[in-house]
Amino acid sequence: MGTLAAHRRRLLRALAVLVALGGLVLGVLWLLQRQLIYFPDTAPVPPAASVLEGGRDITLHTEDGLDLDAWFAPPRPAAGEDDRDLAVLVAPGNGGNRLSRAGFAEELTRRGFSVLLLDYRGYGGNPGSPTEEGLLHDALAATDALDGLGFPPERTIYFGESLGTGVVAALQDQRPPAGVVLRSPFPELAAVGSHHYPWLPVRLLLRDRFPVVEHLATSDVPVTVVYGDRDSIVPTGLSAEVADEAPALVERVVIEGADHNDPVMFGPRVADAVARLADRVG
């Protein structure tokens, strides 16, 4: 009898230790989760004019008091293209900075677009730390800047890349644009986390939700969805779900053989999808 009781006590102590360790791990993950979401390149970037023809540095002023550096590039239409009198606001993913999107900006300017390359707080030498709410403030400040440059939301296409799809989905809810392009989107960020960490209660832990489908549910803004069919970061099925749920879907572009950060995902085929949407709405 005593042996059985002692065994039970040891078992209960072991369970208590496991519960405590599990709680500790979850607590650490909750505290550090934003370090697992945002991977900013904090290095200062060169002047826009040294990278983009006609480019210039601009400053965005956020509602919560931050001054953020960004790049603006005017249209440089290639042969056979015209100045569209439309801007593209590029909201990037969770890594790098605006320098790594310069090639994509050039693709857009060749197609007659003006382009604003946004760097969020904490990225590209900007002050602050990224959060879901903060990134929306940054995007709102970008629309203010574009408005001052002659491109109100109705003359702007919002382009969101990966995490940026969550940013522009929320942005279009507040300031409807001419159109939205979602590149490698997810229904909500928790769906991506649950795919990569199925053993964690991601939805319970996650503070930054980025609910793309929820923001699009009642929107009549024309939407194009672009994704690769070999995406190892945002599973293809999640991007397909966004396209399925978008009420005003104009086009679904599936790039065969493409992973999340392959060069093709920043190249002419994606820029062409932006141009086709502009043809529909412009």
From TrEMBL:
<keyword id="KW-1133">Transmembrane helix</keyword>
<feature type="domain" description="Serine aminopeptidase S33">
    <location>
        <begin position="87"/>
        <end position="190"/>
    </location>
</feature>
<keyword id="KW-0812">Transmembrane</keyword>
<dbReference type="Pfam" id="PF12146">
    <property type="entry name" value="Hydrolase_4"/>
</dbReference>
<protein>
    <recommendedName>
        <fullName>Serine aminopeptidase S33 domain-containing protein</fullName>
    </recommendedName>
</protein>
<feature type="transmembrane region" description="Helical">
    <location>
        <begin position="12"/>
        <end position="32"/>
    </location>
</feature>
<dbReference type="InterPro" id="IPR022742">
    <property type="entry name" value="Hydrolase_4"/>
</dbReference>
<keyword id="KW-0472">Membrane</keyword>
<dbReference type="InterPro" id="IPR029058">
    <property type="entry name" value="AB_hydrolase_fold"/>
</dbReference>
